[in-house]
Amino acid sequence: MNHYRQCYFNRTAVIKYVPPENKKLKDYLSQIGFNKFFHLNGTDIHKDTSVELMQLTALNPLYIENLIILIDSKMRLSQGVKDSLKMSLQEILTNVFDHSKSENGCFVCAQYYPSRMTIRLCITDFGVGILSNLKKKYGISTDIAAIKLSVKEGVTSRPQSAGFGLSIIRSFLKMNEGTLSIISGKGKINFYSNKVESYNMTKGFEGTAANLKINANKESYYSLTEEEYIF
Fold it and tell me: Are 23 and 60 in the same domain?
C-alpha cells in the first residue's frame, strides 16, 4: 500500500507521495527527514548537514537564520555577505507570501553534501507563477522571459522599491561558480556563472521552484566591497 499525505494547494490539485521502490533512495529520504515530514516512519540523522524540510506560510526568522548558519558553517563569509544573503532570502519568501497566491505558502529545505562540497537550497511554491506577477507591469508573455527578468536588479511586482532578492542571489552564485535553477510554469532556466540555459517544458509546473547549488570551498573568502562580491 502506498503511503500518502494529501495537501490541498487549491480546490483541484492534490499531492500524493508514493515512496520510491529503490531501497537506497528510500533509506536516504528517511535519513534526511523527508519521510518524517510526510508523517511516515523515518528519523533525521543529518541534522549537522541539513536544514529540515519545512512548510512556511509567513516569514520565520529562526528558520532563515538556520539556513544562513548552515551555509556559513561550510564556507567563509563576511558579516556583510551573510546579512545580504539573509535579506535576499527574506525578500524571496515575502514575494511568495504576498504574490504567489499559494494557499499553503512554500516549502524550503537545504543540505550540505560533503563528498561534493556543495550546498543545495530549494524554495518551492504551488502558486500562480512568475509570469502571472510580472506580465502586466513589464509587458512580457512567456515563462522564459519572466524568469530571465526576475533575476534582474530592481525587478518586482510591488509598487515600492524592492526586487533585489534573486538578483543578489544570482550575483553571489556567479562569483561562487554555483548554479541557480528556476522552474515556473512551462519555463526552466539554469543560470551558471558563465552561461544561461533555457528550456520550454511541455507539461509545465504549477508554481515556482528555485534551486540553489552553492560551492562550499572553505579556502575561498567572500566579502562585500562596493556592492560587489570578492574572494
Answer: no
